[in-house]
Amino acid sequence: MKAEGEAKDSPVIVLIQHVWDHALAATGHSWARLNRSLRNALVLAIDSGMKFGRDDFKVIEDRFRPSYWISDGEGIYSTAVESSNDTAAIAFERWRDRKPFFFSDCFHGRKRGRQRLHVGARFEWKSEHVTVTSFADDGASLVACSHTRAKATKENQYPQDKVLHRHVITRPELTKAEKGQLVEQKA
User: Which residue of 29, 43, 90, 124 has the lowest C-beta tally within 10 Å?
Assistant: First the structure.
């Protein structure tokens, strides 16, 4: 029960708290099952469109040991962006103290137009189709790679994608590209 004057938990926190409090009652103890259930509850909250409080990820960090079930979090952030749950994306960004990267004309997503970039987001960069693979720890840039398909061989009958080019991209470069002002550097 909350003390008077304490903020009320968001529906997201109520759901995760419920799983935390009542999971394993019928099956006995299993850390793997509890951690999987907590992650599933978080994904359910995001994908179902539940509204996140700005500090919900901080509350999750304080109460529910997320290092065991969120891992690096980029998959959670991708789910928030792909589900168009801006409240979840904003709460994640606040938790990670990371400003979002926006870009127009991504190749996927439920909404068109300017979108947040996330790991797995695909867009065109310098005349190549690229996929976001990571964000810099300091939040200043992201890495996006273009790929080429290797040919199948006798030893490897299943061809693999290989990195063709690795681009480190900053927010100002994204803005310039959107305005058509990015000048390609010659190698």
Answer: 29
Q: What is the pTM of this model?
A: 0.84
* Euclidean distance between CA atoms 22 and 16, whole angstroms: 10
* Residue 161 dihedral angles phi and psi, to the nearest 5°: -75, 140
Scored b (16 or more CB within 10 A) or e, 34-49 reads: bbebbbebbbebbeee
| Residue linked to tokens 């792909």 | 82
The DSSP H or E segment spanning 36 is helix 31-47
- What is the Cα–Cα distance from 130 to 150, expressed in whole angstroms? 17
pLDDT in tens, 30-72: 999 999 999 999 999 999 999 999 999 999 999 999 999 998 7
d(CA 94, CA 80): 14
Which residues, including other chains, have CB under 8 Å from residue 61's CB and lie 6 or more apart?
95
